[in-house]
Specification:
The protein has two domains: 160 residues, P-loop containing nucleotide triphosphate hydrolases (Rossmann fold, 3-Layer(aba) Sandwich); 125 residues, no CATH class. Helix content is 41%, strand content 18%. It contains ten helices and nine strands. It has a five-stranded parallel sheet with strand order 2-3-1-4-5, sandwiched between helices. A four-stranded parallel sheet has the order 7-8-6-9, covered by helices on one side. Helix 1 crosses helix 6, helix 3 runs parallel beside helix 5 and helix 4 packs across helix 5. It is globular, with a radius of gyration of 21 Å. Pfam families: PapZ_C, RapZ-like_N. This is RNase adapter RapZ.
Amino acid sequence: MSPSLRPVLLVTGLSGAGKASILRTLEDLGFETVDNPPVTILQELVGDGDAPLAIGVDARSRGFDAAALLAELAALRALPGLAASLVFATAEEPVLLRRFSETRRRHPLAPGGPLGSRVTEGIAREAALLAPLREAADWVVDTSDLPLPELRRLIERRFRPDRALGLAIGIVSFGFPKGLPREADLVWDVRFLRNPHYDPALRPMSGRDAPVARFVESDVAFTPFWDRMTGMMELLLPRYAAEGKKYLTIAIGCTGGRHRSVLVAERLASHLSSIGWRVDLIHRDLAAHPATGGGASVAGQEALAHSS
């Protein structure tokens, strides 16, 4: 895809999942933003401009209909000079319930009745209404465990206007006890490698430190694994790009998300960048370790709770 194409993002998702925060971040990146216009005027909004454009659309939009929105998206994709994408924000129901409870906002699709049941029913109605959009989205971002600062960084990494278009690869290191990254397309489990955690000298370090790297790479299984993993990636990535896939997240997990997964993620990001791929790297659980600083930002999570 030519880098001269104008980005046009349709941003939708569940109420309380962070759509407004995504739009504000895109605006800070230089996107023109419009929230909740009538679905029928989307092509008119695109107009003849050349600035990146982000349009927020949800169940409150006048004339909203999922099938109609998908038809409009198809029409935008057919226009010359545009690169139109659909972004869907979601979160787990308990998280959405907590956010509505903290902000005391009414869910836009909630019926009458006791507060808790109203919000629960509204979430279920909206999820069913938006299901075709989630299925068709180019990128689904789950904000359940995502502090607002990290959501902003994620948006910035993916949608900075100065970045070339094409397949964007995200590499995420993580620890299995906290669960798989929700956005993962491919998952590599590296818990079979020697664990530096059991060496008292290496335990405080991370996979970014040379002694840890030497320890893990000295495992007799490391080199065969590395050769096969990188060979598989070099086979798959061009095929994904040829099929028009815009985003691919590769998750690499170990027991704590601090040593083995961090090392392999760092090496894979460097390798893929060196052969021309556009790569972003996140160490999801590394910052949660006391030696590296604090974990999730409570203030950021509270701010996200106030966004739609």
